[in-house]
Design brief:
129 residues; Rossmann fold; 5-stranded parallel beta sheet; 22% strand; Bact_response_regulator; Sig_transdc_resp-reg_receiver; Response regulator receiver domain-containing protein; phosphoprotein
């Protein structure tokens, strides 16, 4: 399974990439909506991990575009802001499958990614121990 991580903090991007790779995802990281759009035009990803605010704006429109362009893909939005405090993200970003708040516990990230992969009917390949 492939995951695209859109996060402009290189430390978080690296940590999330390592976590998801340990879970069995092949991960690609970008830091802007422009780069994410270019990647999504070239390839299909099973999971999109989108930080709400990145260097060139917010990812709400990107999440809507992904939901239309790649139906069935799971979108996990991450935010450190107070936006969507009442769980109202589905009214603004209807394609988002799950919302996590920073700081993220990496075990929560792994669990949600595995859940979303299972919900889509796709298996996450486990690396041999």
């Amino acid at each position: 399974m492939k995951a695209l991580i859109v996060e402009d903090d290189p430390h978080l991007s690296f940590t999330w990439k390592e976590t998801l790779e340990d879970t069995g995802f092949e991960c690609f990281c970008v830091s802007s909506t422009k780069e994410a759009t270019a990647c999504a035009l070239r390839a299909r990803y099973d999971l999109y991990v989108l930080d709400l605010f990145v260097e060139d704006g917010n990812t709400v429109s990107l999440s809507d575009w992904i939901a239309i362009r790649h139906p069935g893909a799971s979108i996990l939005m991450v935010t450190g802001s107070g936006m969507f405090a009442q769980g109202d993200h589905t009214q603004v970003a209807s394609g988002v499958s799950w919302l996590l708040r920073k700081p993220i516990n990496v075990s929560d990230l792994a669990a949600v990614a595995e859940y979303l992969a299972g919900r889509s009917g796709r298996e996450v390949s486990q690396h041999p121990a």
